[in-house]
Each structure stands twice: as structure tokens, then as C-alpha cells.
């Protein structure tokens, strides 16, 4: 009976972890390559949700199909963000880029608030109401399955891109040693801009799926920034593969915390796991000293 009662929260936690991994992978990538903490990550993710919302309202597309339009738009947003703002801060310490991203976060939140109002929005889809019935004690929400497999797909594609393509190898070279990469003829600033664009493409996919799974508001970017931080810290700074494991751990911690101690303990359970990781292994599960 105990196993039956735990089956549903365990499955939900694992599948939710996929969405958390997708939320955090862009931040992990940016930190690993540029050693940059992007405080606007959550708000750029929510911007993707609103872009998808606007497209569905205008063209009547299924929200899942809007990924095809939103991801290239967010690539150019990320590229311009890095090229026009953050590249100018290179070599000026970690504080200057962080302050720039904080400023962008505030601008995005207030812009979305002015355009869309503070009302809750959602990307309505049939997937949100469908479930796969396994047993009388276990059913799997279809939208959670989509979130999880999308995360696995994005991580596999990103790993392939970074290891098997010339731009990916150039990004890794710039991450390992920027000065040596320059001597090899790599344009560091351009590579950083491409890396930020790719990170924003992952945030765009996460933003669409977040909008299909939950309601969102102009100011909920902060909530997803904290989730991204948790994934990055648990998985290890810059570890792409570690984000999935970290997302599952964080998702399980929150869902099981809510199951055993009540819904008011859901977020706290995740923060306790995050704090334990910082104490026991501050470099993360897959990070390096």
C-alpha cells in the first residue's frame, strides 16, 4: 500500500524534473562558457511564453507548434543581448554583467506588465487535460511526459552540437581557454553571442512548455530563475548532462516534500536539498573543483 501511494508522486517528481532541467540548461550553458550569471534568464523564458501566447492568439496555432517560430526569435534576442550589451562588459569583472542582466530583468518584467496586464495567462492545449492511465493508483499527465522527453531531446541535441560541430567545438574552446582560442583564430565575442543565442533557444522551448503546463504572469520569471539556479547548483556549474539529473532531484524533492508534509512545504523541500548540496558538495554532482 505504501508503494502504491508513493508511485504517483515519484513519477510526477521525475517527470517534473525534466521540465526543471529544461528551465536550467540555458543558464548552466552560459555560466559554463562565459562564467556569467544571467539574472534575466527567467524573464527571458517568460518572454518566450508571452511570444507563444501572442502567436496563438493571432494565428490560432497549437501552442506546441509555436516553438518553431519562438525559438529563432529568441536566438536573435539572445545574440543581440550578448553582442550589444554583455560583450561590452567582458574583462570588467563579474559584477558589471550581472548588473546589466538585473537591469534587463526589471525592464522585461515591467514591459510585459504594461503590455499584457497582471492577469494570469496560459497556453491552452488538449495535452494539459490528458493522462495515460497505468493502474488504478497511477496515471501520467501527458503534458509532463512531453516536458520530460523534450528536455531529454534538447540535452542530446545540445551535447551533439557542442561535441560534433565546428561552432560547438569553438564554443568549448572559448570556454576552456579564451586566450588560446583567440590565437587559433576564433572570434570570442561572436562565439559568446552564438552561445547566448543557443541558450535562449533552450529557454524558448522551456517557456512554451511552462506556459502549457502552468499559468504565468509578467513577474513569474523570478520563480523560474530560482529553479534554474537550483538545477545549476545541484548539477554542477556548466554541466549540460548534469542538468537532467539535477532537475529530477529537485523535482522529486519538491513533490515528495508536498506529499509527506503538505503543499506548503513543496518549495521549502527543494531549498533544503539545494542547501544540503551547497554544504556537502558545493561544486555540484558533476562539477569540478
From TrEMBL:
Main location: membrane
CDD domains per record: TM_PBP1_LivH_like
A GO term, aspect molecular function: transmembrane transporter activity
Cellular location(s): Cell membrane
Gene Ontology BP annotations: amino acid transport
Highest taxon of the lineage: Bacteria
One Pfam short name: BPD_transp_2
Record InterPro entries: ABC_transp_permease, BCAA_transport_permease
A single cellular component GO annotation: plasma membrane
Keywords assigned: Amino-acid transport, Cell membrane, Membrane, Transmembrane, Transmembrane helix, Transport
Residue intervals passing through the bilayer: 12-32, 67-86, 98-117, 137-162, 191-212, 224-253, 260-280
Topology term for the membrane: Multi-pass membrane protein
Homology family: Belongs to the binding-protein-dependent transport system permease family. LivHM subfamily.
Stated name of the protein: Branched-chain amino acid ABC transporter permease
The organism of origin for this protein: Desulfosporosinus fructosivorans
Biological classification of the source: Bacteria, Bacillati, Bacillota, Clostridia, Eubacteriales
Amino acid at each position: 500500500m505504501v508503494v502504491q501511494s508513493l508511485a504517483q508522486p515519484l513519477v510526477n517528481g521525475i517527470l517534473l524534473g525534466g521540465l526543471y532541467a529544461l528551465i536550467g540548461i540555458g543558464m548552466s550553458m552560459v555560466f559554463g562558457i562565459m562564467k556569467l550569471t544571467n539574472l534575466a534568464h527567467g524573464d527571458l523564458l517568460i518572454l518566450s511564453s508571452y511570444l507563444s501566447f501572442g502567436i496563438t492568439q493571432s494565428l490560432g496555432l497549437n501552442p506546441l507548434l509555436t516553438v518553431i517560430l519562438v525559438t529563432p526569435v529568441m536566438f536573435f534576442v539572445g545574440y543581440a543581448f550578448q553582442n550589444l550589451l554583455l560583450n561590452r562588459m567582458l574583462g570588467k569583472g563579474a559584477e558589471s554583467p550581472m548588473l546589466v542582466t538585473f537591469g534587463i530583468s526589471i525592464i522585461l518584467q515591467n514591459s510585459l506588465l504594461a503590455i499584457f496586464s497582471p492577469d494570469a495567462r496560459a497556453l491552452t492545449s488538449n495535452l494539459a487535460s490528458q493522462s495515460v492511465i497505468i493502474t488504478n493508483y497511477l496515471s501520467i499527465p501527458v503534458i509532463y511526459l512531453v516536458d520530460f522527453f523534450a528536455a531529454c531531446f534538447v540535452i542530446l541535441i545540445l551535447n551533439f552540437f557542442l561535441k560534433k560541430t565546428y561552432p560547438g567545438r569553438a564554443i568549448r574552446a572559448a570556454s576552456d581557454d579564451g586566450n588560446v582560442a583567440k590565437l587559433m583564430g576564433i572570434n570570442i565575442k561572436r562565439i559568446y553571442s552564438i552561445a547566448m543565442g543557443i541558450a535562449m533557444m533552450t529557454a524558448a522551448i522551456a517557456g512554451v512548455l511552462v506556459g502549457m503546463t502552468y499559468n504565468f504572469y509578467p513577474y513569474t520569471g523570478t520563480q523560474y530563475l530560482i529553479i534554474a539556479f537550483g538545477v545549476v547548483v545541484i548539477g554542477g556549474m556548466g554541466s549540460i548532462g548534469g542538468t537532467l539529473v539535477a532537475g529530477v532531484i529537485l523535482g522529486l524533492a519538491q513533490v515528495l516534500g508536498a506529499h509527506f508534509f503538505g503543499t506548503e512545504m513543496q518549495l521549502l523541500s527543494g531549498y533544503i536539498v539545494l542547501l544540503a548540496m551547497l554544504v556537502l558538495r558545493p561544486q555540484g554532482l558533476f562539477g569540478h573543483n
